[in-house]
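Deliverable D5.2: sample structural annotation.
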Amino acid sequence: MGASGDLARKKIYPALFALFYDGHLPPHFSVFGFARSEMTDEAFRDYISQSLTCRVAAGAECGDKMAEFLERCFYQPGQYGSDEAFARLAERAATAEAPSKRADRIFYLSIPPSVFVDAARAATRAASSLTGWTRVIVEKPFGRDSDSYKALAAELGQHVSEDATYRIDHYLGKELIENLTVLRFANLVFEPLWSRNYIRAVQVIFSEDFGTEGRGYDGVFFFSFLRKGGREKKEEKKKKILRSFPHPPPTHPPKHPHRNHNENQPGATSTPTASSAT
């Protein structure tokens, strides 16, 4: 959902194509874009193709792979809270899924938080898979503070179970961030030195050559957040990246080791002051 948006164009479609190019997607997958904008399948494929690249190994078959990927992409316009629109989406999806005995469906909510609940309710009610599982991916921001987060989570939980809900931050999914754990524990040089005894300070620098233009942020909070150049969002991302640095090796990992560790990290780190920097 949010198929015609900036985030989908810059992040989601290139990531899906990279997975397909490396053979990590099921053999009979299909991508259905859903948004309020009117668009044909052909126009949708042309829109997607503008952001696809063979980033890792641009072999001779790249063009063929891209054409094959685009043939599996379709577009369905509709309102996010409309059961009828998602019913039409389900009909088209069922046609594409016909060759398979089992079909799993993932709804990626790349849309403003104000329509998360309406979209999840309509999608799960009218377009859930009848032969496999149905899951929902929610893209940040998820609420504007602790209270709004809890309220939004409670409303979303009425339509999607917690086990079928995935809250993600695409920025924290970048390779450099994900590889920090491997860089630390799989490197015999860094691992014994990666402690407070040898590291005095950690600096996290946010640097991107493009902003959030075209993103569907809404409401007073998000308008304010954009006026401030995204400072609140950048600072939160920096904090989450920082929490990955002192991550201890799990001896007997619980069900959610990274989540549990991140919840305990704020009290274990200190912010440098002017006096400590001199």
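Annotation notes: The radius of gyration is 21 Å. Confidence is low (pLDDT under 50) at residues 214-232.
The annotation will be released with the project's public dataset once the embargo ends.
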